[in-house]
Amino acid sequence: MTYFSGLQEFIASWDDRFVEENPAETFRESPLGNINTDGTAACADSPILSKYHRKFKKSIEPGVRDLTIALILKLNCITYSSCQGHFSTSKSQMRPRYVGIIPRDLTEYHSLLEQLKTVADLTNTRLAQNPVQVVLTPDTLESENCVMPCFNLFFISQSADEATYFQEVEAVYQTFLKLVSDRV
User: Fold this and answer.
1) How many CB atoms lie within 10 A of CB 19?
2) Is the whole model's pTM more than 0.85, yes or no?
3) Residues paired with 138 in a beta bridge
4) 3-class SS of residue 67
């Protein structure tokens, strides 16, 4: 279970074209490409911005930006977390590429899960020899006044070798992205 303070307010603000900036919504980029609150490889916190926030696009790491935007535009997803994936450092573990998605209700949860599972299965079938696979993992978000199901779209390696993961993830990512982008 993941704690998300202000979850209901975030969902309510997702489609607000006039969302206001909050001075606490700051992020930095590390020399290794991590975009988060501290701008370090060790930090796993970042402000969660709605899609019309003027810094939304800049707050998403480039290696997962196109997919995050495609999920929003093609499937009307609410995204709340993402990572392009990062090699381990002396202060952090390796991080796989992923996008976190919050369905608005249970009907949308099941619909999105079914649609994304279809795309994931097709991607994994097309690239069956690739050690990286697309995996959907259920999660739960807890907030001050609610608990909601959500899920994460992970690019996971069957190999423990980080170099292999980062060499192979891009082909899987691009295939999955194209399949999502081609959806009507």
Assistant:
1) 16
2) yes
3) 151
4) helix
